[in-house]
Amino acid sequence: MKDVLDELAAVHRELGKGTVPAGEAYAVVLRRRYDAEIDDVWEAITSAERLSRWFLPVSGDLRLGGTYQLEGNAGGEILVCEPPRLLKVSWLFGPDAPPGSSEVEVRLTPGPAGDTEFELIHSAVVEEVFFPTYGPGATGVGWDLGLLGLAMYLRGEHVEKPSDFESSPEAREFSTRSAAAWGEAHLAAGGDPEQVATSVRNTTKFYVPDPA
């Protein structure tokens, strides 16, 4: 695996506001470049067989208007599918998740050297107490781990199952530094320094629990 710091530096992170059917939402934005053709990246994020190699097994009716379910994770409806540039899905955890409360959009743009610019926007309405407690790192660290897995996969490296990788020393270091990077993005968006510091600590404890 490339150096943790290199992987972290490859991603640009932003915190902003968005809208979903349920109303105003927080939005985390991640951008990075992949040394792969746009069609290859598109297939890696939309093919059920390839998704299972670097992310999670997925089932469902994987077409526009269909539904999907990631094993042990989110599910929802495929809202927009415009190969190979735009994918938008609802992103809901469990049957009790409020409809229209969370959406993920991925935009791909071909680069000048056969590479691909990748942008992911996750907009979600969150409980009033949740954001001050965890900040953008609550979802941002998870997406950093996902984009790392995609980078490794596109380079032809072995990608462990997320549950195995996330407990490794490399992943613990990556998640710790990712939480801090999302804290910096939160500060850049005008976050209160004391609240940001608290949310970074809480997010780090969540993703990097004490092994004992």
TrEMBL record:
Pfam families for the chain: AHSA1 (PF08327)
SUPFAM superfamilies associated with the record: Bet v1-like (SSF55961)
Domain Activator of Hsp90 ATPase homologue 1/2-like C-terminal: 35-128
Chain ranges passing through the membrane: none
InterPro entries: ASHA1/2-like_C (IPR013538), START-like_dom_sf (IPR023393)
Superkingdom of the source species: Bacteria
Family, per entry: Belongs to the AHA1 family.
Protein name: SRPBCC family protein
Lineage: Bacteria, Bacillati, Actinomycetota, Actinomycetes, Micromonosporales
